[in-house]
Amino acid sequence: MITREPDFFPPSRNVLGQVGRSVVLSFRETGRAMLLLFAAVAAMRYAFTKRTRHEILVQMFVFGIKSLGVISVVAIFTGMILALQTGLALREFNQEVNIGTAVMVSMLREMGPFMTGLILAACVGSAIAAQLGTMVVSDEVAALEIMSIDPVRYLVMPRLVAMLLVTPMLAFYMCIMGVIGGGIVGMTQLGVSWDAYIDNAIRFAEVKDLFVGMFKAFLFGGIITIVACHEGFATTDGAVGVGYATRKAVIVAFLFILIAGYFVTRLFYV
Amino acid sequence: MTKISDNILKFENVTKVFGSKAILDGMNFEVRRGETFVIVGPSGTGKSVTLKHMVRLLTPDDGNVYVNDRCINEVTGGELAELREYFGYLFQGGALLAWLTVGENIALPLREKTNFAEDEIQKRVAKVLAMVEMSGDYDKRPSDISGGMCKRAGLARAIITEPDIVLYDEPTSGLDPVTARTIDALIERLRVGLGVTSVVVTHDLHSALSIGTRIAMIHSGKVLELATPEEFIRSKNSEVQKFLKSQYITQRGSWERDQI
Fold first, then answer.
1. Of these four, A116, A262, B96, B216, which has the most CB atoms within 10 Å of its CB?
2. Can you give the pTM of this predicted structure?
3. Contact B95/A147, CB-based, under 8 Å?
């Protein structure tokens, strides 16, 4: 059951009690989020029905196309900053031609998936949490349950599938835009020709970097969706609760993206 | 084959505690098949909580809730879904999905839970929309219609699957008197015409006395009075009399059943 009974706790007598309760509750919520993930994965067998396919495409449009603008701007300027900083350092050794490698590898391995993840957590994760939270406080989720329509299959699974597909695509797009941004700085500020920049960028980047970066983005897409859906479903206390759930969804997603990013890097590169 | 019980719903010593407050305190009552059972009482006495126990949106801390002689708080998964198919539920605000039109909202349970052809679904949607007097509103979004219309659309969605029991949470609150009486008439029509069992939670005693076959007044987590409308307005219980007088209803009665 997604609809929850309200929690009531006696007031804690001391700080230790409060800390202990927070720890226990965070384990409980993590467990619930994992159960939500398993239920959503199990519901993926319904992903190919006509209605769900349509819903997934709608969500992909909302998550992907509508995020393109902000991702483009962030990507270009991220690439430009990377190129400028590394270019200025490399100029000391007359090696500014190598900014192509620096920008390409940084974008593929870390900045592309990370920045995409953080942008989507802020834009899409907050929107999912707010939408589901509003549905919970206005009894729409309870109405689905009473109609025996599984909210996980109807609401979570299409969003999860859409995000798992869209996030790597957006991360790849971000890498391309970042490399273009770096090239613009290379040409205009550092005197590196476009051909030399691109040649350098492609020569030293590995296919592994691309795959690991896209795997990270895939993982981040899952984290953002499950965290946002979980926080949305856990909403209580009306409009105030929706705001709280939205804020928490973004913060928790940010944290998990950073933590997961580190472990994936460690797994593939150490 | 499912056994047909005379009592379609039964509360047996149901207790529910929120924090330190017992909202339901050993509640007992039965709802008979085909009746309109009205639950009245002051705010915060657990009327909506009672309703939510019937479909297991809440689970009792103690006691049992039976639907067709099956204890709903002991079933899970498919069995729970099966029991919930007996019910239609009208929430206070209608609980329509904001991104669907009124018609799509009403068609939702049929599209998701049945194999009806689109023609059949449209026919049924048109029929229930006519019943709630919203025939021209199929393509409107919930945000484009009034609260009362949302409630009527929610009612249409609740009855489109032709459930055995319809639960109404404050069906007439916030509605103008004319629309409120339309809803009352519809509830009565469902009972008389289709034999639908209704459980209505309301503050509106005029409505309760008009549509109820039996009325239960809840107070302090218990059923304080359970009687027919005629017996209810003549109750000697001081809390019942206080509640009646608060809505200008005297023992001589200011209501007429055939008003609707």
1. A116
2. 0.89
3. no
CB of A247 within 8 A of CB of A235? no
**Residue written as token pair 């819903």:** A55
pLDDT tens column, B154-184: 999 999 999 999 999 999 887 888 888 888 9
Q: How far apart are CA B218 and CA B209, in angstroms?
A: 15
ipTM: 0.88
Sign of CA dihedral B113, B115, B118, B123: negative
Closest partner residue to B89 (CB to CB) among A1, A143, A149 is A143
CB–CB contacts below 8 A, A to B? 52
Q: What SS3 class is residue A58? A: helix
pLDDT tens-digit readout, A113-128: 999 999 999 999 999 9
Q: Is the CB of residue A72 less than 8 Å away from at least one CB of chain B?
A: no
- Residue A174's identity, in one-letter code, is M
Instruction: Judge: B111–A51 Cβ closer than 8 Å, yes or no.
Output: yes
Q: Is A7 exposed, middle or buried (0-12, 13-18, 19+ CB in 10 A)?
A: exposed
Distance CA B194, CA B164 (A): 9
Three-class SS state of A67:
helix
Q: At what angle do helices A157-189 and A112-120 cross, to 10 degrees?
A: 130
Task: Name the residue among A8, A135, A142 with its Cβ closest to that of B19.
Answer: A8
